[in-house]
Amino acid sequence: MENVSVLEERKDFILYKQNGCSGNGMRCDANSVSGAVSQRACVYCGARVVLNPITDAFHIVHGPIGCASYTWDIRGSLSSGEDLYRNSFSTDLRESDIIFGGEKRLTAAIEEIATKHQPKLIFVYATCIVGVIGDDVDAVCKTMSKKYQIRVIPVKSPGFSGNKSVGYKMACNAIMELIKSEKPAKRKGVNILGDFNLAGEMWIIKDYLKRIGISVISGFTGDSNYENLLESPAATLNVVQCAGSSTYLANRMEEEMGIPFIKVSFFGIEDTTSSLIRIAEALQDEEARQKAIAFTKEETSKITPLVERYKKNLTGKKAAIYVGGGFKAISLIRQFDFLGVETVVVGTQTGKKEDYDIIESLVSKDTVILDDANPAELEKFMKEKQADILVGGVKERPLAYKLGIAFCDHNHERKHPLSGFDGMINFVKEINGSINNPVWKYMEESL
Ligand code: SF4
């Protein structure tokens, strides 16, 4: 595997950082190269990531059963109310449906849910095969919506219709479809976009905002529900955490509802501090700004002794990062920098040019930056750069373990929060526990 070479068509998506910033950038935000075995998920999965955490929504996956099982209960989004969202409903299309059409099965599935469960909101995901056979999902949803007086919203997400980013966009369109006609009275407060309440992270952010006197109107989509989402047009500011999945929604809400937005990140001390202060500034709320300064100072001083203790074990180590979006990669580079850990490989599934420009400005010379990587590339560059730890998600975990490299799960399956000051402690403990675990010594001996 040492000699694995990068596919010719993939070379433009990989960059070795040079002195300063090249300014030429690298290719990104494009469809995956055929045959490259991308780590990305499909369009449907991208849409499901965004919409799944709405706690009282029903999700009907119109397609073969496999598409539904792909996301069944593997997400760590928590709920303070309903837990319906943990289920997938599938039309389970078979061969005869593919030949004669699947609209009847979709109609039956919606009718079953409408009569048995009295839903307020149903999302219907069109998967690959539905895109091929051309079922009129829009028409079925419209008819059922009218018949049962509920919201039945189509999500156009055939897996082959683009990449995971397209799925995010389709989910944002579905959310806009839900909220665009709502006109609640305006009130001072924010919507949080792009936080999915993984291990309760939305609750941490809401608590911080409450402590500095800022109210949260709605959240997209962690621990949200139908009624709460309809309130979102009342907000005076949108704060966007996962920019990759939610900037499109923020743009539409700005254009169509006049709600401005700022991008934030609550990963790491530096980004959490600056995000809270910037939110107060964007709301032109001097009292909240002062409170944010005082609060972040106090929280930082509370966790500093523990972080400093672990820092001694980590300084001089090397990290590889491969995550979904650019905002998380940027925060992670800063977090590692703070801990004295050098980022030697960094990539994302759906980063944009502006994300990679920031990444390039943050990392040291010769760091490998790559977009839409595959396992062979990750293996090659982690070995070449002698990374001590990989930060990634469920698909990257086995790769790291097989190579005898420590791993930190920073994706949707994890069970502990990594955002805010509380999350920084969890992050440092996990990085330390994984990098300095004695098991790696035995791995080296047996490899
Ligand atoms: S939508 Fe297509 S690519 Fe996605 S899980 Fe279903 S069959 Fe696979």
From TrEMBL:
Pfam families: Oxidored_nitro. Residues 42-435 form the Nitrogenase/oxidoreductase component domain. GO terms for molecular function: nitrogenase activity. One of its GO terms (biological process) is protein-containing complex assembly. Pathway: Cofactor biosynthesis; Fe-Mo cofactor biosynthesis. Keywords: Nitrogen fixation. SUPFAM superfamilies: Helical backbone' metal receptor. PANTHER family: NITROGENASE IRON-MOLYBDENUM COFACTOR BIOSYNTHESIS PROTEIN NIFE. This protein may play a role in the biosynthesis of the prosthetic group of nitrogenase (FeMo cofactor). Belongs to the NifD/NifK/NifE/NifN family. This is Nitrogenase iron-molybdenum cofactor biosynthesis protein NifE. The gene is nifE.
